[in-house]
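Action item from last meeting closed. Structure (176 res):
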């Protein structure tokens, strides 16, 4: 899905990806800014903006970790197979799963807030095999205004009413 600023918003892209239950990466660009949102079955797993802080930095800022503890975990990450920092921190016992979940969700929210302020905005969705590392995610509907959610529900309900009708009936109704 390639979409540019010709009337589509980030909300529109999130809604389409969520409704379709897509899995892959949404690349978001504006000028020299570039970021990514990773989806699995329409749910947001990760988000990266050039202005959002890394999970480890957020944990140090909130004094959950020290700088040296974070550096130790980053060294482990560099020497082994790719494992998210949060997973490595869980293994060390330095943080709990609810803390990691809160930090990842905050990182997603901050990135989407950043993307929402970019103008003009270009999107490119790349279907790829994105697998969750854990149960952490955010639903796209969190970022879609209530009026758009309500309009979408009305639209989907209308589609549901049409599903059982024969094609010939639909063609006649479409001409009226």
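Sequence:
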């Amino acid at each position: 899905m390639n979409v540019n600023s010709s009337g589509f918003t980030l909300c529109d892209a999130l809604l389409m990806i969520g409704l379709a239950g897509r899995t892959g990466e949404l690349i978001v660009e504006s000028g020299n800014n570039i970021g990514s949102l990773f989806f699995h079955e329409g749910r947001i797993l990760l988000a990266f903006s050039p202005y959002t802080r890394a999970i480890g930095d957020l944990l140090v800022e909130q004094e959950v970790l020290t700088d040296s503890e974070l550096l130790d975990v980053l060294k482990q990450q560099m020497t082994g197979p790719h494992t998210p920092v949060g997973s490595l921190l869980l293994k060390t016992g330095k943080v709990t799963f609810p803390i990691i979940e809160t930090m990842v969700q905050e990182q997603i929210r901050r990135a989407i807030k950043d993307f929402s302020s970019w103008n003009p905005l270009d999107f490119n969705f790349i279907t790829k095999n994105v697998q969750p590392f854990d149960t952490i995610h955010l639903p796209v509907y969190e970022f879609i205004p209530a009026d758009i959610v309500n309009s979408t529900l009305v639209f989907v309900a209308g589609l549901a009413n049409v599903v059982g009708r024969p094609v010939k009936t639909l063609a006649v109704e479409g001409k009226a």
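Note appended to the action item: The two ends are 32 Å apart (CA to CA).
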